[in-house]
Amino acid sequence: MKPSTESRKLPPLPPGDIRIITLGGVEEIGKNMTAIEINNDILVIDMGLAFPTEETPGVDYIIPDVSYLEQNRSRIRGVIITHGHLDHTGGVPYIMSRIGNPPLYTRNLTALFIKKRLDEFPHLPPVDIRIVEKTDRIKIGNVPVRFFGVTHTIPDSMGVIIETAYGLIVTPGDFKLDLDKVDGVPTPEEETTYSIFDREKVLLLMSDSTNIENPGFSPPEREVHKNLEAIIKNVKGRLFIGTFASQLERMIKIIGFAEKYDRKIVIEGRSMKTNVEVAELAGLLQVKKGTIIPVTEIGNYPEDKLLILATGAQGEEFAALMRIANKTHKQLRFKKGDTVLLSSSIIPGNEITVQKLKDNIARQEAKIIHYRTSEVYIHASGHGNRGEIEWLHKKIKPKFFIPIHGWHHKLRVHAEMAMELGLPEKNIVVPDNGMVIEITDKGRKIGARKETVSSRLVLVDGLGTNDVKEVVIRDRVMLAQDGMFVIIGIVNVKTGRVVKSPDIISRGFVYLKESQDLLHQVRVLAKRKIEEATNRMHPINFDYVKNLLREEVGRYLFQKTHQRPIVLPVLIEV
After folding, report:
1. 300-332 pLDDT per residue, tens
2. At what angle do helices 386-396 and 408-420 cross, to 10 degrees?
């Protein structure tokens, strides 16, 4: 876990210089957020969240540290959101009011997702959302900004072009290329979209690094759609399809194919239901009445006419697929004759949970189809592979480059690829969260300042905007690793004597019935230390005694067990 750091006060930006601050998304996958300063104007691109890891137990979300933006809220002219996924929008409810609620610019579908999310936060002031189109050119503060459409797994995704005196700052957000085949040839529509850079001078490119280590080109989503249609048409019995709720375009196609082949659809999973509702509101999905049915009516239709669209292809404990597999779902069970299609790749770190999901499905004799066993494409990433990233660099031909969106190793690989394509190393900056990068000398130089801004982990529980402090997380990790050890002593306030042998409660540390000798020694030690500390102490300083007891007992337990449980002394005065 990265230690908390305080923002150093940055000097004023000299006229003509440009400052880029990577606030999130460059040491991880998720919580994407970048601030760009031009003269006295600050523009923010994306405002995402990340999901917790083993290092952050009990946390709902992780969001960027915006301390620097809070300090400079009067200069923030606007927020641009590139598309509707949570790693780019999820921080909006927690951050916008803290930075002064500047106008938020995005496309229609993304705006609907944000509004739907904000409905869960009625106590917050309204957000000024302004809809833009992919070919718009607007001014945010004094900065001209343009947009262009990009291919991703969710409609209305867009790239951002910021105009400066020295050339364009370009970021495509999350992107892949729409290919005619799996051969690296973009469609004519894609060629037209990116042709704007044939005649433009690009100062800086900031580009997605998620799939930089995947060689070649990613399979076109249309290939996935074609194969899913064939499966929906030909599979006998009930068909369960598990995919990411964020794969909105794929979900829309699946629903359309189900209608085409007269299958009734059950949608299981809160996020998936929400995304379908938003797609209908945006006019991207028109479902015939009676196509989507509640799960309670599933017994009213032939099994060959049923398709269950569910969340949980990553084996999440409380998602729909895992609850069905674990037999904890109220209405659904897998059985022989069912087919379960997992239309997603395995996110690194989820291998064990996905394997448990597949094992539990297989125990119920349902057939499983997933991307590693299927002879055809049933999943495609929304992020371009190395071939597409190289194509983008050759098309845009930037003077400077900052890799974003990925773990540090991915950013390094992306930087190495840019150098292989001819970009000098001095024109590339590989960032960390909180890094301050400046383009100086009338657009001739780029470099990172020694000063950084605060980039601590901001951890959110529930709907609260107050972040969980790192000391709380440390305690949670310690509890999970070594448990808790409570000593309860009754002390005579007049004499300082312990009235009876201290009581002990242990949780997650040692099994009390099998550790009687250790517990006896701890009781003796605790009684002696309390009475030594309180001897001739009038009045008794109980805080001092508890701290002493915590240190002495903790040291003794580590000597005997090589474990460090959280020691909690409780002293009762009589």
Report:
1. 999 999 999 999 888 888 889 999 999 999 999
2. 50
Helix, strand, coil percentages (3-state) for the chain, rounded to 5, are 35, 25, 45
pLDDT digits (tens, 9 = 90+) for 87-141: 999 999 999 999 999 999 999 999 999 999 999 999 999 999 999 999 999 999 9
Please tell me the predicted confidence (pLDDT) of residue 313: 86
CA-to-CA distance for 549 and 530, rounded, in angstroms? Answer: 7
pLDDT, tens only, 130-145: 999 999 999 999 999 9
Alpha carbon 52 to its chain centroid, in Å, reads 8
Collect all residues with Cβ–Cβ distance below 8 Å to 355 and sequence separation of at least 6. Answer: 315
CATH class of 221-370: alpha beta
> Which pair of tokens denotes residue 211?
């799939």
Tokens of 428: 């590339």
> Within 13 Å and on the Cβ side, how many CA atoms surround 172?
29
Residue 198 has pLDDT above 60, yes or no: yes
Contacts 24+ apart (CB under 8 A), 326-329: 326/360, 329/268
CATH architecture, domain defined by 483-573:
Roll (3.10)
| Segments making up each domain of the chain, as ranges | 18-217+382-470, 221-370, 483-573
C-alpha to C-alpha distance for 421 and 548, rounded to whole angstroms: 63
Residues sharing a CB contact under 8 Å with residue 465, sequence separation 6 or more, in sequence order? 93, 94, 97, 98
C-alpha span between 316 and 314 (Å, rounded): 6
Residues 6+ apart with CB under 8 A from 460: 49, 59, 60, 61, 62, 63, 94, 467, 468
449-488 in b/e form (b: 16+ CB < 10 A) is eeebbbbbbbbbeeeebebbebeebeebbebeebbbbbbe
CATH number of 18-217+382-470: 3.60.15.10
Contact 438, 18 (CB under 8 A): yes
pLDDT at 465: 46
Length of the chain: 574
Please tell me whether residue 439 adopts helix, strand or coil conformation. strand
According to the model, what pLDDT value does residue 279 have?
Answer: 93
At residue 275, the 3 state secondary structure works out as helix
pTM of the complete model: 0.83
What is the overall mean pLDDT for the chain?
90
In contact, 212 and 409? CB cutoff 8 Å: no
Q: Enter the DSSP assignment of 218.
A: P
